[in-house]
Amino acid sequence: xxAVILAGGEGSRxxxxxxxxPKPMTPLFGKPVLGHILDLLRLSGINxxxxxxxxxxxxxxxxxxxxxxxxxxxxxxxEDTPLGTAGGVKKCxxxxxxxxxxxxxxxxxxxxxxxxxxxxxxxxxxxxxxALCRRDEPLxxxxxxxxxxxRVLGFVxxxxxxxxxxxLVNAGIYILSKRAMxxxxxxxxxxxxKELFPALLAAGEPLYGWEIPGYWQxxxxxxxxxxxxxxxxxxxxxxxxxxxxxxxxxPAGVELRQPCxxxxxxxxxxxxxIGPYTVLGEGSAVETGAVVERSVLLGAxxxxxxxxxxxxxxxxxxxxxxxxxxxxxxxxxxxxxxxxAIVAPGVKLWPGxxxxxxxxxxxxxxxxxxxxxxxxxxxxxxxxxxxxxLSAGAMLSLGALLGEKGPVGIGWAGGNxxxxxxxxxxxxxxxxxxxxLLNDAxxxxxxxxxxxxxxxxxxxxxxxxxxxxxxxLFDSQGLPLPRSEQRKLEGALLRGEGSRVSGTxxxxxxxxxxxxxxxxxxxxxxVRSLGSAAQAPNVAVERGEGAxxxxxxxxTALGCRVQRGVGKGVPIFSADWGGFRLTAWDEKxxxxxxxxxxxxxxxxxxxxxxxxxxxPAWAPAAAESVAQRRGGRLLRLGRDGVEAExxxxxxxxxxxxxxxxxxxxxxMGRTGESLEGLCRSLPRFVxxxxxxxxxxxxxxxxxxxxxxxxxxxxxxxxxxxxxGKGWVYVVPSGSRSVLRLIAESVSAEAAEELCAQVEExxxxxxxx
Length: 768
Known about the structure:
The radius of gyration is 30 Å and the shape is globular. The strands form eleven sheets. A seven-stranded mixed β-sheet has the order 5-4-1-6-11-8-12. The protein has a seven-stranded parallel β-sheet with strand order 14-17-20-23-26-29-32, with no helix packed on it. Strands 15-18-21-24-27-30 form a six-stranded parallel β-sheet. Helices cover 30% and strands 26% of the residues. By secondary structure, the protein is of the alpha/beta class. The chain is built from 21 helices and 50 strands.
């Protein structure tokens, strides 16, 4: 028999333990939870399995490979779009063939007798058989009602207590026939519990549920994770606990209270007390006088005299001297409980967060809080999960700081979560005495334009995508806040600053409507002022609201005949990344990359515009060749100071997709050239991007590259390296220990070769 392992889960309820890893890769006794599932399958006589993946699939494939280390033969199926439990298994049918097969979750902890389930399934010639387990409180599970012959009578998903009439719940482990899977549609989201099983039941197919001997626990949250650990240590579940476990004797002076599990390469100081029911993963350290009981340390450090009881400490987290961490608390990677701090029961510190020395931390610290406020990303935005990383309280604090400077434009799109954050932000603005201008800007670029048009001290646009949101802040010029202003805001939030005025001075809220039409009209007006076009071209704009709706309106105002969707024989435009990046396809349907569009816009400026253009430091070096050919002058932001910044402000088509499309169409109408023809007039170039992870300092390796590599030029932001075949731009990541490379040459092969050469040199510098 073959198996399908469902391993696409993100594990949001297990955060911060699962941040940066899929749920099946959660570490448990020296191996991922999925590794224990593979052990169970092998012991049950199953040695071939398909694994369905969705979230961070490489984390699974890189670790398990072909499965040989676990005595298995594995094949992976990655879902580009969510297909549900049954839909994901449907993709594996070519692998599974005609025989009945097992389906099991890759993120549960169990030792159920799978051989018994197979035997029972065969004895009744069932089309599908479900493994059932008993739960005293089954509200978070799917109830399964069966008759005395174990034939399924019905299902109740996530019941209320009034619906609970059985302790039997669906364990998510099934034996299925091909006949059952024939009812699942191809490439369509479809669920076992909600759709397939009720359909089989309605069709009168033989569907059975069996209470199978053994242990099963859905590792749904951090509490369930600790329960699994304690059950394994007490022998309630049969897991392989030998992998990575030390065989060395406990150091003298250490009091060990069994049961415990201690990995190799763990440091225990004399006088510490470990256990009972404690797991110390590789790299953990416990100092003199510390007490760690009923807890899991995954490579964490506990300082002198500290106490950790019933907690989870992730890799590189630390509990400093005499601090106390209570039951149910979780410290994410790199989180710190300062000396003599108290982390209350149930509190979670997200990665890198800190409980202050001597303080009492009674609320979870996510992206906001007294010690870890909101942080800007390297791209100049604030991102996170709504009501986890981005909460109403955090937006209130941010609004109070922005409102001190005057009126603030606030727009949002994408969902009610973004609207909630925007309203919380407006409350903070008014509490500081400022005026909140709630507007109907459909995209971030429209919000930036509005701030510039009104000369607002600040404007904000919040875009929601699913459960995540992005907050972008702009200055009075409609530009992203400079890093200096971002740092000021971060520091003020850290210190808890922000004005609160008296009741008589509270600011007001105004509504600004019609932003889309005003923005589109202004784009067309500014571009028309650069010169009239004999006849504006016919174009197409991709469907969708937001930035593309503005783009269509602006091109119509310019005089273009605009189709929505795919057009034939006309250029097609799309405004992406909130309206700040233009993507285009020429009249023959060939995509014009954003890099090439940037060079093309520079060509227009050198040929029939101001004769100068200001571009970002990372923009292609091909623009330099165009400038030389046309007798123009290219300036670089960061390299050419105030002159470049002032020119950048006067040329919005280099940073705004709507302005960019209008400028291109105005030039095509003026010259009669096609987009394809304009692109042919440019120097031939291709760009390739790559990242180089580092073991040492980003600044150290960048400095080495600048001083040791020939023809290296500082760009103010990053370094540009000249070679005989092209250029390579190198810049450090703002959020991770990696260097980003953009190689540029006449062909993709040459650019790849340049990238490889520079990457090799950077790795050598990193290893020196």
